[in-house]
Amino acid sequence: MLVKRLHLQNFRNLEEIEIEPAEGVNVIFGENAQGKTNLLESIWLFTGCKSFRSHRDREMVGFDAPFAKNEMRFFAHGREQDAILYIDQKRTAMKNGVTLKSPAELIGDFYAVVFAPTHLALVKEGPLFRRRFLDTALCQLKPSYAKSLAKYNHTLTQRNALLKDIQYHPELLDTLEAWDDRLSSYGAAVVSERVKYTAQLSENSAEIYAGLSGNREKLKINYISNFGGYDGDAYAIKDLLKQRLLDTRRDDIFNKMTVAGPHRDDLKIHIHALSARSSASQRQKRSAALAMKLSEANIIKQMTDEEPIILLDDVMSELDENRQDYILNHLGGRQVFITCCDPTAVLRLCEGRTFHMEEGRVL
Q: Which domain covers residue 139, as residue numbers?
């Protein structure tokens, strides 16, 4: 998978940019706040997923501009393709000249993995960040997962609304069973895929982390459910979740919200059998987060036979020489975009093309 040409218009502070990247490492360098991360974000959006920085599409449109337009020519699935994203109040997309119903229809056409300093939250912060990581990774790989997740979240919202109404309309209590059945069905589809993905993630991450730490430390990742153990079978998970919803019904009504389900699950990240979140050093946390993101790229390759684009935002400068060397040596055969203030450290370890950015322009 390769980005062949990228043309951006009015995307954040990038008024007009066109680049033709190298097939290997591409270094985007310049001072802070010049638009380097914006360029990586523009590439990421072609995965069909939401921005890794912003929840509102309008925030990605340049100041005083009516719209933004991102165009990309890329090689994937054995042929060259074109995609266009228009952004005003929302995003619309075209692929190979055909208007898509939603940008989400790009999922599966273009794969990328992004690592930014904010991804340290994977290890440092609460369960929400780890669930979001799993969901983003799986949505790229499986459009069916994205549909199951959307249905689960929609049903969860409706069930929570019902729980709030029951105190005023007790007769609605009889309808909970139907909602429980629907929620447990969608929830089982979500959890089943998460469990299988986590097993692959743990195996890949352990190998990468061992390399980053010089084989001195061991990383392990487990999927932790709040409603019991399971082996990944969707039917068994549905039964467990439905029983858990029944067991917690009184609490749900009292709290006016659903207290059990995949929206409360978590990943447990351990280094030498100790919680990485509470016990690991800053260096260990950074290495663990990096290992997880690089594992995501490996899993995409294993499952699709396509090498994803790697987007590294201001990461290399915070690593020592050995870790820089390890990462770059494990990115061979992939197209990589790296942002930094000084390209010397990266180019010392590999050959690549450089793009100097200043005030939203490539010089």
A: 118-305
Please give the sequence-ordered ranges of beta strands (E in DSSP) within 171-265, or none if there are none: 219-224
Residues 6+ apart with CB under 8 A from 354: 26, 27, 28, 29, 343, 347
Count the residues in the chain.
Answer: 363
- Residue 36 shares a structural domain with residue 12: yes
- 155: nearest Cα among 141, 175, 171, 140: 175
In this prediction the pTM is: 0.88
What CATH number corresponds to the domain at position 67?
Answer: 3.40.50.300
Q: Which helix (H) or strand (E) holds 353?
A: strand 352-358
Last residue of a domain, one of 262, 289, 305: 305
Long-range CB pairs of 159-163, under 8 A, 24+ apart, other chains included = 159/183, 159/258, 160/256, 160/257, 160/258, 163/252, 163/253, 163/255, 163/256, 163/257, 163/258
CA–CA distance, 105 with 237 (Å, rounded to integer): 29
Whether residue 133 is found in the same domain as residue 7? no
Among 259, 279, 305, identify where a domain stops. Answer: 305
Q: How confident is the chain (363 residues) per 10-residue block, as mean pLDDT?
A: 96 93 90 92 92 85 92 95 93 94 90 89 93 93 92 96 90 91 95 94 94 89 82 84 93 93 95 91 89 93 93 81 77 87 74 87 88
| Domain total of the chain | 2
